[in-house]
Design goal:
single chain; 215 residues; mainly alpha; protein kinase ck2 holoenzyme, chain C, domain 1; N-terminal domain of TfIIb; 2 domains; three-stranded antiparallel sheet; 5 strands; binds zinc ion
């Protein structure tokens, strides 16, 4: 319920930016974010700007995580290089970033960042022959942490595919690909593209569907 409230509120309007902890508004990603998204296997993530991460509105109803305040400070850190943070803190920061990321990609700025990644096929391509290599969109099977890895949604055949990634699907959530499709792809294909539907034939004759068969 809280998630639905958040999503609707974020879509209707961006609230006035409330910057906590005296951190100046900054639409660029922090040094931690730049490092994190460039790690091998993290290319499904886009860079969330510091001002979005710092805005306490975007933390509403997040689950409690270990060392959450310290993790938030780490994510917003502008320090480059130096020693690595303790593993527990780094792990908490990664989970927190994923949850904020899932919210960011539903906003106009996040949607635009993901549109550029989709155009570059950063999320992989549909393996189905009749989809002709359509670029996939990342999606979670759930909005809750720990319910499965990120999947690839094909907006052409509307099916889900496994990806090589083992990242938690909650970092993308269940809404993103469908909202993205409504805003970016429907115009290209119309309500639904049935042209790519596979039609089984024997000697050129169309086979009846399973519900029509009597053998
Ligand atoms: Zn497909």
């Amino acid at each position: 319920m809280h998630h639905i409230f958040f999503t609707m509120a974020a879509l209707i309007a961006s609230p006035p930016s409330f910057i906590s902890g005296g951190i100046a508004a900054n639409s660029s990603p922090s040094a931690w974010v730049e490092r994190f998204v460039s790690l091998p296997g993290n290319h499904f993530y886009c860079s969330v700007p510091r001002d979005f991460i710092a805005d306490s509105f975007n933390h509403l109803s997040l689950p409690d995580l270990p060392c959450q305040r310290e993790a938030l400070s780490l994510i917003l850190s502008t320090a480059t290089g130096g020693t690595m943070p303790p593993p527990r803190l780094e792990a908490s920061a990664r989970v927190l970033y994923g949850l904020i990321h899932a919210r960011f990609i539903l906003t106009p700025r996040g949607m635009e960042a993901m549109r550029r990644k989709h155009a570059a096929s950063d999320f992989g391509r549909c393996p189905r022959t009749l989809c002709h290599g359509e670029s996939l969109l990342p999606t979670g099977a759930s909005d809750v942490l720990g319910r499965g890895c990120v999947k690839g949604f094909c907006p052409r055949c509307c099916d889900l595919y496994d990806t090589p990634s083992t990242l938690d699907g909650a970092s993308w959530g269940t809404t993103f690909p469908h909202l993205f499709t409504q805003q970016n792809i429907r115009e290209r294909w119309g309500p639904f593209d049935h042209k790519g539907k596979f039609q089984p034939r024997v000697f050129g004759f169309r086979l009846r569907g399973p519900e029509e068969r009597h053998y």
